[in-house]
């Protein structure tokens, strides 16, 4: 029995060789190739945080190798976002533009800069209705870490056409 785990991080082990599309993942009746396809493209959006759809848009913008390399060259940092919704709940996402050029949930590994703001302000920032400098000066955006790297985030957020 192979020691590979399915990408959904199930404690169940795969029954089949990952290269075999004819066999099934042990906890779903999908061929392994279909299972990885559906779970590896899972949305980063959280319905309680409407602006979180921007992370899917940024992830889509980084799909091509050329775009990914360009973003890594321009960003050269791991950006973490702590968003707070109207109900007072907090959720985190990260954009790794230092190593892998990927977007994910959670703070990521060793964020270079962490930006904390409300979900509504993040949505306004992504759509261009708000300016990061103004949000920072008004206390609505809190920055922890390398403030200069934070200035490189706005062009990356512009890729998220909501």
Automatic annotation (TrEMBL):
Residue span, SCP2 domain: 58-157
Region (Disordered): 1-22
Bias-annotated ranges (Polar residues): 1-20
Cited InterPro entries: SCP2_sterol-bd_dom, SCP2_sterol-bd_dom_sf
Recorded GO CC terms: cytosol
Record-given protein name: SCP2 sterol-binding domain-containing protein
Source organism of the structure: Lasiosphaeris hirsuta
Species classification: Eukaryota, Fungi, Dikarya, Ascomycota, Pezizomycotina
């Amino acid at each position: 029995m192979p020691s590979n785990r399915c990408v959904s991080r199930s404690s169940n082990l795969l029954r089949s060789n990952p290269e075999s599309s004819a066999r099934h993942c042990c906890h779903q009746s999908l061929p392994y190739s279909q299972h990885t396809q559906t779970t590896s493209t899972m949305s980063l959006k959280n319905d309680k945080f409407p602006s979180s759809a921007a992370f899917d848009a940024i992830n889509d913008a980084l799909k091509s190798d050329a775009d990914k390399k360009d973003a890594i060259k321009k960003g050269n940092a791991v950006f973490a976002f702590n968003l707070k919704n109207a109900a007072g709940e907090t959720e985190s996402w990260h954009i790794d533009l230092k190593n892998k050029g990927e977007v994910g949930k959670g703070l990521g590994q060793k964020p270079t800069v962490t930006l904390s703001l409300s979900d509504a302000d993040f949505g306004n920032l992504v759509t261009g209705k708000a300016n990061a400098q103004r949000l920072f000066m008004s206390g609505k955006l809190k920055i922890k870490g390398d403030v200069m790297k934070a200035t490189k985030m706005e062009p990356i957020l512009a890729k998220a056409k909501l």
